User: Fold this.
Amino acid sequence: METRSTRIGLGVATVAVIAFLWLPLLLIMAYAFNSSTIQSWPISGFTFHWFHEAWRDPEVRKSLTLSLKVGLAATAIALILGTAAAAAIYRFRFFGREAVSFLLLLPIALPGIITGMALNSFFNFGGVQLSMWTIVAGHATFCVVIVYNNVLARLRRSSPSLIEASMDLGADGWQTFRWVIWPVLSTALVAGGLLAFALSFDEVIVTTFTAGAQTTLPIFILDNIQRGQQLPVVNAIVFVVILVTVIPVTIAQRLTGDTGVLRRGTAASKAAAAATGGGAV
Amino acid sequence: MAIQEHAAAVPTAGVDVPDVRLVGVRKTYGDVVAVDGVDLEIASGEFFTLLGPSGSGKTTTLRLIAGFERPDKGRIELAGHDVTGRPPYSRDVNTVFQDYALFPHMTVAENVGYGLRVRGVGRRERRLRVDEILKVVQLPGLGERKPVQLSGGQRQRVALARALVNHPQVLLLDEPLGALDLKLRQEMQIELKRIQRAVREVGITFVYVTHDQEEALTMSDRLAVFNEGRIEQIGTPAAVYERPENAFVAGFVGASNVLRRAGHTFTVRPEKIRMTNDGGARRDDENAATGRIRDVVYAGMFTRYVVDLDDGGELVVVRQNLETSSTEALDARGRRVLLEWRPEHAIETKPQREEKHESV
Assistant:
């Protein structure tokens, strides 16, 4: 029957697309355990050696530390600014509201190379020395959007009278925050924060323009691949980066999908798409 | 709030103190006057309805009583206490919201117990009172469910329980049945009345907002008809229906059967009109009219006839389908008829306010 063949066709296409997306990742993850230094399939033996090697390498450690610091700082900024912006856009009708909303969303659509170039020339123009904080600023541009989107979506799907209901039942401002606002928003905040961190952790393009001489983990990977050095070590690092990216995204999806307040598919998958699309791996 | 003087804060002792009292309350949003000088007194234990079309100020009035809005002018008293400047959490009122506003992260029991919890009522007493009120609203044993797992009607009952468990002085209901389908709505009307009678001994006053005139007539002890921020009439359902004070009330509560005779305006309820074939002898010219049936609306239990009058204007007549079939009813279209009513059923009404303004 027609419907049956259509169903089979769609099934095959879906499997093919997913395989195309995931096989290369699985391949490189397998290479991380390859005992030989030559990348060829099947791997010649199983070893944890490259993980040890990577861990002992001071350069790897330094770039890992920098990536973690940048990720945490950018996430913190995103949580504060993103939540505040979402609350303002949701709660108030003011002049330029639509414009503010658009400007907040723009960085996620803007190619990273443009954001990077613009920031770079801005820092040059202002005489700002490139440092960890210039990377943080660059990452914050798109991290804010993620938190903003998550929180705004949660607010829009919650009943606008929840706060009034709480006050009506005798709760003052603090009690309302503690028992209603925070529990309703917390999963959206955690999800947004995790996604923002994942985005920052594997960002390359904006980082290249704002990092100067410093090396984040993705930049370290890129440099070594370009120079063809330490490829087994790089594979091990890539393995870790994949985990560090996939785990938060998965948790974030569960958090937003679980409560019934926010379903999957909005900010979460957009960010997930951005994470895989704009990632170094 | 200049009116909020010190003396006004002292409660007036006595049995006759109304539970809710609004004095000259006015509220504007920018250029829009939502509530325009409303005076209202609601007695303890009363089921009082604020009835009106959307945008007539009934919901704003409710929100003013709840404390979600502050009036620009006027005073709001609860049991003799001036509460005009008080926030919602220090007023002894609870609200059932139109969208229920159940906390999605809490179970039914936690939702219902929320008001007790924020007031520091202990866990054991809380559970007893929650269980008790869940029985009153006929939801026993659903305490551990989350709001998403409930049907619309069940959510409605939870919202009601959450408000009632606190034994508020006044219970405010903002179109609480608006989201339910017709059948469920009719069930809940009866149910709400039952609950209201059950809690009347505790002295809970119900203030109910609706745009549904039938709902208002069915449920209320008294009702206030709102129009453009003002109250057109306050009275019992029978009084408002049978003796509407002006054309707006006559039209909004029931069909707009308005007759103009010699400079006076009358209204006659559709079910009070006797319709016969034209040609018969008239008993009284004052209380009769001839015309032609323009439209027939067959509604199963009764048929609604729209009659174009020979002297101008139209009247709606409702007739029970006692011996009439649908085809017979529909065949009546175009027929000439004589309409008669008893003199006491022609109620003189003041013209509508807008018209009064124009003539000034």
Notes: The interface with chain B takes residues 158-162, 164-172, 175, 179-180, 183-184, 259-261 of chain A (CB under 8 Å). The radius of gyration of chain A is 22 Å. Residues 32 and 65 of chain A are 21 Å apart (CA to CA).
